[in-house]
Amino acid sequence: MKYLSYTFLLLLLIPVSSSSVSECSFPNKSTFPGEKLVYKIYYTLAGAYVGAGEATFKNELSTYDGLPCYHLSGEGHTYSSYDWFFKVRDLYESYVDTTTLLPMQFKRKVQEGNNRLFNSVIFNRTYNRATSTNGVFKIPDCVQDVLSSIYYARNIDFSNFKLNQRHHFQIFLDDKVEPVYIEYLGKFKLKTKHGSYNTIKFRPKLLEGTLFKGGDEMVVYVTDDERKIPVYIETPILVGKIKVYLISK
Question: What is the maximum alpha-carbon separation in the chain?
Fold first, then answer.
């Protein structure tokens, strides 16, 4: 089962090829403790735009098993006025190594409509194992979780990317290793009511879920600078469309 807040998580990803061990880690230049990004989500149907909710992403310095780490969190919720249609209260947390940006633990607590789920995953890099609430699973060397992938991928250098070039990588999600890709669509000047930006545009492969069709109809814009902050996302869903704007950083 995939969840609404994947709009802000999985589908903001800028991928790295999983074929090279050297690509498992990058020097961190894009995110820092104290960073807070807030997004507003609009639902559109028959040309009408409705502010449906918000998502907030934070990076805080912490420790995990005695080691320094980044405590990443992504929280998404619908506004109370929208809850009657589809109530969302989602929280994603990831504890990642400050050097490699690889996840050590991932937690997910979601409520979407009548669906409720809690899952915790501990990553053992020595034995390439992921121990979740539901069991123990084999994982590849460079696998990310759905939240850590955003921060990890924001550090990739895109200067040598070619138009329409696709890059593949893997995430561990719902107790499975999922292959995903993103197609590079070039650089654009983007102007919205929340700001103007020089951006890099992508078309990610979308995993099919309760609201999403699956495929590659979503587009994502990130700032064309070292921080590579996602500023605008647009995707069709089963009925209508979702638009997401950065409103605070």
Answer: 53
Beta strand pairing call for 67-78 and 88-97: antiparallel
Which of 201, 170, 203, 172 is closest to 16 using CA atoms? 170
List of E strands, the chain: 36-45, 48-64, 67-78, 88-97, 103-112, 115-124, 129-132, 135-138, 166-173, 176-192, 195-204, 219-223, 230-236, 241-248
Q: Tell me: the pLDDT tens digits for 30-82?
A: 999 999 999 999 988 777 888 999 999 999 999 999 999 999 999 999 999 98
Q: Which residues contact 120 (CB under 8 A, 6 or more apart)?
A: 105, 106, 107, 108, 132, 133
Query: How many domains is the chain partitioned into structurally?
Result: 1
- pTM of this structure: 0.85
Which tokens go with 203? 């078309």
Domain range for 78 is: 4-248
DSSP string, 203-226: EEPBPP-SS---BS--EEEEESSS
Residue 119 β-bridge partners: 108
Beta bridge partners of 248: 38
Task: Convert the pLDDT of each residue in 79-106 to its tens digit.
Answer: 999 888 888 999 999 999 998 889 999 9
